[in-house]
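Q: Please design a sequence for this.
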C-alpha cells in the first residue's frame, strides 16, 4: 500500500514537472562527467554612441569576444553580470533591442543564460555637451533604424521592461532570468537557480543566488529587505547548509575594498589575478549582506563586475570575493578582454576558476573550494 502511494505520488510529480516545463527552461544539471561550467560575461556596455562608426564597431568586437569564449569553453550556463547596455548613451525608447543583441551569441549556440542588472542598464540618456553646437540647438541623433512610432527618447528603459522583454522573447527556453519578488522593488534581478545532481536526480547539488546591487534609477545598494530575502530563501532551500552556494551581483560590496591588494601593486597570494589597476568602486552602504553570507559556510564565493580594471579573487573570512573580467569593448578601459570561467565538480565538490581571454589564452587559475 505504501509502495503504491509512493508510485502515485511519483507519477503525479512527474506530470506536474512536465506541465511546468512547458514554456520554461529545462532544469540545470551537472553533466555526465560530473561537472558544471559557468562563463561570466561582465560589462558588455552595448549601444554606445550609435551615431558614430566606433560605437557599433565596438559592439561587434564584444560579440567576437563572447563567441571566442563560448567556442573555447562550451559552458553549461552564461551569467551576464550586469551593464549589458550603456543606457545613458542610448537616445532610443527601447534598449531591449540592444539587450537582445547582447544575448545573441549565447542563444545562437543553444546555451542557457541568466542576467542581472548593473548600474548602466536602466539609466536615462545623458546629453553629450558637444551636441550643443555654437548655434545653441542640439542636433538630435536618433539611430537610423528608429521609426516614427519610436522617435528618440531620453528616459531609459526600466528594469522591468528589459527583463520582461528578455523572458517574452525567449522562445527557445534558454533564459533562466527572473523577475524577483515585488517586495524587493526597485531591485528586480533577485532570484535563485538550482543545479541538480548528476547522481541523485531530484536533488540540487549547487544553489546560485542572484542579487540586484542597484544603480541607475536608484542607489547602489543591497537593501536590508534583500538580506532578509536571502536569509529566508537559503534557510528554506538549504537549512543544514549541505548544498554549496555561489553568489552573483554587479557592484562590489564595501568588503571588496577591505581585502583588495593596494591599487596598482602586484597581486600577491592568497589573492590571484592579473589586473589591479584601479580602486574598488564599492556600493554606497553595507546593510548586512556580507554578515549574512560570511555566517554560512556553504557560501563559497561572490562574483561581481563593475570595475573593468580589476580581475582578482581575494579571501574574506571563509569565502572568496572575486571579480569577473571585463568582457565588452564598450565601457571604460582598454585592457584585453576576456571572461571569468567557474567550473564545479559535484563529487567530491570543488570550484575552480580561471580567466579565458579573447585570443584563446588562459590565466589566473585558482581553486575556490
Ligand atoms: C520595448 O520592446 C519590447 C519588446 O519588443 C516591448 O514589449 C515593449 O513594449 C517595448 N517598450 C516600448 C516603450 O516601446
Ligand atoms: C593573448 O593576450 C594576452 C593578453 O591578454 C597576451 O599576454 C598573450 O601573449 C596573448 N597570447 C597569444 C597567444 O597571442
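A: Design:
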Amino acid at each position: 500500500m505504501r509502495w503504491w502511494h509512493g508510485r502515485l505520488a511519483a507519477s503525479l510529480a512527474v506530470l506536474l514537472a512536465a506541465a511546468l516545463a512547458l514554456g520554461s527552461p529545462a532544469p540545470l544539471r551537472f553533466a555526465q562527467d560530473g561537472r558544471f561550467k559557468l562563463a561570466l560575461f561582465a560589462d558588455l556596455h552595448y549601444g554606445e554612441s550609435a551615431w558614430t562608426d566606433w560605437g557599433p564597431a565596438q559592439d561587434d568586437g564584444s560579440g567576437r569576444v563572447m563567441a571566442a569564449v563560448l567556442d573555447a569553453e562550451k559552458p553549461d550556463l552564461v551569467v551576464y553580470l550586469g551593464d549589458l547596455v550603456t543606457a545613458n548613451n542610448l537616445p532610443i525608447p527601447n534598449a531591449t533591442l540592444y539587450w537582445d543583441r547582447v544575448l545573441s551569441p549565447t542563444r545562437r549556440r543553444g546555451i542557457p543564460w541568466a542576467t542581472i542588472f548593473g548600474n548602466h542598464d536602466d539609466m536615462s540618456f545623458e546629453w553629450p555637451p558637444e551636441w550643443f553646437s555654437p548655434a545653441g540647438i542640439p542636433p538630435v541623433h536618433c539611430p537610423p533604424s528608429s521609426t516614427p512610432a519610436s522617435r528618440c527618447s531620453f528616459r531609459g528603459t526600466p528594469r522591468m521592461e528589459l527583463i520582461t522583454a528578455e523572458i517574452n522573447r525567449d522562445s527557445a527556453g534558454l533564459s533562466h532570468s527572473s523577475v524577483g519578488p515585488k517586495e524587493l522593488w526597485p531591485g528586480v534581478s533577485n532570484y535563485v537557480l538550482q543545479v541538480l545532481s548528476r547522481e541523485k536526480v531530484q536533488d540540487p547539488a549547487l544553489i546560485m543566488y542572484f542579487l540586484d546591487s542597484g544603480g541607475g534609477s536608484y542607489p547602489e545598494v543591497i537593501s536590508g529587505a534583500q538580506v532578509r530575502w536571502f536569509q529566508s530563501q537559503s534557510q528554506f532551500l538549504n537549512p543544514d547548509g549541505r548544498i554549496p552556494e555561489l553568489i552573483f551581483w554587479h557592484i562590489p560590496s564595501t568588503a571588496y575594498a577591505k581585502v583588495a591588494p593596494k591599487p596598482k601593486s602586484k597581486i600577491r597570494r592568497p589573492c590571484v589575478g592579473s589586473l589591479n589597476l584601479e580602486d574598488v568602486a564599492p556600493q554606497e552602504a553595507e546593510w548586512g549582506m556580507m554578515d549574512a553570507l560570511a555566517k554560512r559556510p556553504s557560501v563559497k564565493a561572490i562574483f561581481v563586475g563593475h570595475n573593468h580594471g580589476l580581475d582578482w579573487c581575494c579571501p574574506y573570512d571563509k569565502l572568496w570575493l572575486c571579480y569577473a573580467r571585463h568582457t565588452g569593448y564598450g565601457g571604460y578601459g582598454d585592457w584585453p578582454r576576456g571572461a571569468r570561467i567557474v567550473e564545479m565538480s559535484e563529487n567530491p565538490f570543488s570550484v575552480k576558476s580561471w580567466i579565458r581571454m579573447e585570443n584563446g589564452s588562459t590565466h589566473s587559475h585558482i581553486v575556490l573550494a
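Q: Thanks. Anything notable?
A: The pocket of 2-acetamido-2-deoxy-beta-D-glucopyranose (ligand 1) is lined by residues 93-94, 96, 161, 165 (CB under 6 Å). The chain has a mean pLDDT of 91.
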